[in-house]
Write a structure and sequence with these properties.
With 332 residues, this protein is mostly helical. The chain has 15 helices and no strands.
């Protein structure tokens, strides 16, 4: 557990390191193809701990309707339009890979709210209860909307089997969600609420962090030879990713600053910016056959930008939204 907690606390460094190791390993040391069969179990291993710690009952008490509705409008209308436009601007080459990278960027845009939403909101002293609701709403809406959105917007670029994609989403979202809820209910019933909160709940997130590290290593290993053969592809991918995250942070900071309280604004920022790259990556690698490897490269690189940018943004939070209110400090 100490090793897993160390990984969780240092994801900013661990994920880039795991991707570099994957690049070296898949490029020079071993045949990475067998790793593809590990994608589904690793993804379940990564998503299930996150689901087990969710306070799903909190969504029944919607006191912050304006905040929740605004966040999901941004998640499912503004962000998909943004990533579609960025893809059209930056991925214009005739080679098939450009269209597939655009699909990867679009997948990031229609699968919002990872488990890291709650963690980063907590780090920045934001409203974690609101962030939890955003995560649950985003997972449910995204699971239903992603196959339709991808078919409508990207059907001309890649063959989208909506039914197959929905089945994959069920494997990566609803099965872990149900398993997580059952696990939480069982442990609370057997050991009590206090033991759940103090003993068992803290043990789950480090396993999710390990899963993120493993999936990043796997994705990079599988694509290593192509990256080594075409290093310029990294730059071609990183530029639009940086544009997407910068635009998102600026837009959300302005909306949060002018329309919401400090804690709610921070929750909204991370409820939109922390895209569910794990599920997007798993879907890319299982729902799009051989083309999925090319799509997955962009999503794997997004991990680096997303986590690094979140770490830097936390340093700017006091400057953007002001210091933590005294009442909020006492509540903590």
């Amino acid at each position: 557990m100490k090793v897993l907690q160390l990984i969780q606390k240092n994801l900013v460094y661990v994920i880039p390191l795991s991707m570099v190791l994957g690049l070296i390993g898949g490029g020079f040391l071993f045949d990475a193809k067998p790793l593809k069969m590990l994608i589904i179990p690793i993804t379940f291993f990564m998503v299930y701990p996150m689901m087990a710690t969710l306070n799903v009952k909190s969504i029944l008490h919607v006191k912050d309707m304006k905040l929740q509705v605004t966040t999901q409008i941004i998640n499912f209308i503004v962000v998909p339009m943004m990533v579609y436009g960025i893809g059209k601007i930056f991925f214009t080459g005739a080679d098939e890979k450009y269209g597939l990278w655009a699909v990867g960027l679009f997948l990031i845009g229609v699968l919002p709210a990872s488990g890291m939403t709650i963690s980063w909101t907590g780090f920045a002293k934001g409203n974690k209860e609101a962030a939890t609701k955003m995560l649950v709403f985003g997972l449910i809406i995204g699971a239903m909307a992603a196959p339709v959105y991808t078919k409508v917007f990207m059907g001309a670029t890649v063959d989208v089997d909506m039914l197959h994609m929905f089945k994959q989403i069920c494997i990566f979202v609803f099965v872990p969600l149900i398993a997580g809820i059952l696990t939480q209910s069982y442990l609370i019933k057997k050991h009590g609420k206090k033991a759940w909160m103090e003993v068992y709940k803290p043990k789950f997130p480090p396993f999710s962090a390990l899963g993120v590290t493993m999936i990043a290593f796997t994705a990079m290993s599988l694509k290593a030879k192509n990256i080594i053969a075409n290093p310029a592809d990294i730059i071609s991918i990183l530029i639009p990713l940086i544009v997407f995250y910068v635009l998102s942070y600026v837009m959300l900071s302005l909306i949060g600053k002018f329309f919401f309280k400090r804690g709610d604004a921070i929750a909204m920022v991370f409820g939109v910016v922390m895209r569910d790259l794990s599920i997007a990556l798993a879907i890319a690698m299982t729902a799009f056959k051989e083309q999925g490897m090319t799509i997955a490269l962009l999503i794997a690189l997004a991990y680096v930008i997303q986590i690094q940018s979140a770490a830097w943004y936390i340093k700017l939070v006091p400057w953007i939204f002001g210091p933590v209110e005294e009442k909020q400090v006492q509540d903590k």
